[in-house]
Specification:
Blueprint lengths: L4 H26 L4 H26 L4 H28 L7 H21 L6
Helix pairs in contact: 1-2, 1-3, 2-3, 3-4
Amino acid sequence: MRFFGIDRALVALACLAGLLGVALSAAAAHIPGADSLKTAAQFLLFHAPAILALAGFAAAGLARPGLMRLASGLLVLGLILFCGDLSVRAWLQHPLFPMAAPIGGFALMGGWLAGILGALVPMRRV
């Protein structure tokens, strides 16, 4: 198994997503009406293991590494935009930037689609 720098970065970002998911869950439990923080926390906690798995599949060569790394990267980008927008809206009462959450949602869906392709497209024989 070859663990490249990009794989290490993706694993670190997945762990950061898990850490932030726990932190936002705790914050949401103490802030009345913090439904958007709960949603952000859930997205972070649900996607962190997926990013770990996709990065692991890429590093282990069990699926198309490029597509799996692309999938992981899109999930990370989607979490930054979607969860970042929800969190900024909850705390600062304004969006991260216009259309940040929808763009993040589409990035998340793109990440899942890239993961499907990475799993289904056969590996090249060497």
